[in-house]
Amino acid sequence: MAIGTSDGDPAEHTNLEVGDLVLVTNQSTTDRWPLARVTEIQPGSDGLVRVATIKLQGGCVTRAITNLAKLPIHNDVVLRGHRIILPDALRDKAIDVAHKGYQGICKTKNLLRSKVWFPNLDGLTEEKIKSCLACQATSSIINRAPIITQSRCTEPFKHVDVDYAGPFPNGKYIFLLIDEYSRYPIVDITPSTNFHNLKTILEKTFTTFGIPEQLKSDNGPPFNSQEFTTFLKHYGIRHHKVTPYWPQANGMVERFVKTVKRSLICANLESSKFDSQLNEFLLNFRSTPHSTTTKSPYELLFGRKMRNYLPTQETDNKGQPGQEKHSPLYHNKVPLRIVVRKQNEELLTNTRNR
After folding, report:
1. Which residue stretches, if any, does this entry annotate as coiled coil (predicted)?
2. Residue 73 or 122, more confident
């Protein structure tokens, strides 16, 4: 079995015994997640380690661990499907990395599941996040209002929702735009909410992602100005106005506003930099599979998985190691998933509020 290099002397890793596992990967991984550490020997830490090693060395596997013995190995990396199996020493680090940006329990677990696997992933993640002081300090009870199902969106950047958050302690505002189809967020820090700054941000967004058919916003400033109306007419965009100061009317972007605010408040409690924390949050949010679409916003928009700090093993559509390809047929299922989710939410919420 090949042994990768590590920070220590390679000679230290020449004596391998049954019960030891060496995971090998390329050294070209980002410094923030040095996968070279995964190449270190994990001496007999658990059944998962012993099974993988026995398989490599041609030993017999007991009946109690037969299923684990079927784990595939690609480039000397032990996999579970397309996900890298992490040894004990790296599990806490993986959870910490996935929790950057202070996403909630479900989002953090979804992000981890998309990249790595280890025993009791859900339980360890929940325990870790529930003990996060910053998350506890910013938790709140959610009261849902009745909802009405809107017309469905069938392709990326056809319908977008916009709003502002702030002002923050640094005097800045955040402009937020979300694509209704992929849930991909565009976030810009701006000194004010005047139309001039808004126009600059939207023009930059349109040149990158194209011109949407519909833009949804509340009816407050600057979205209620004549300049903004003229701007949208110039681009041929339909303006869907919702009731101002009623967050439920523009639920998708308002939920994202709440999530961003919570992340930045957590960052302030831990003395993190505003800009850096926002970037950390966006990296994790854009690469986390959504509970409705089952794909990350980035993957639905760009057709490939987003590379982040967590290690990953590329696979093709058949689940074999290789170059991963995103099937265009999946896009046909996304609108149906969204409609079913909205109908279920409408039924549940309206039943609760009778």
Report:
1. none
2. 122
Residue 86 in domain: no
- Residues 130, 135, 138, 142, Cα dihedral to 10°: -50
Q: What is the DSSP code (8-state) at residue 220? A: S
Please identify, among 29, 49, 80, the residue that sits at the C-terminal boundary of a domain.
80
Q: What is the DSSP string of 127-148?
A: HHHHT-HHHHHT-----PPP--
What is the residue-averaged pLDDT of the chain?
A: 73
Residue with tokens 């831990």: 270
Same-domain pairing of 19 and 136: no
Give the torsion through C-alpha atoms of 49, 54, 57, 60, to 10 deg.
Answer: 180
User: Does residue 111 share a domain with residue 12?
Assistant: no
Same domain, 11 and 149: no
Q: Write the pLDDT tens digit of every residue in 246-262.
A: 555 566 777 888 888 88
Sign of CA dihedral 189, 190, 192, 198: negative
Kindly report the pTM of this predicted structure: 0.56
Helices (H), the chain: 47-57, 91-98, 105-113, 121-130, 133-137, 195-209, 226-235, 251-269, 274-287, 297-302, 334-352
Q: Is 196 left (phi over 0), alpha (psi -120 to 50) or beta?
A: alpha
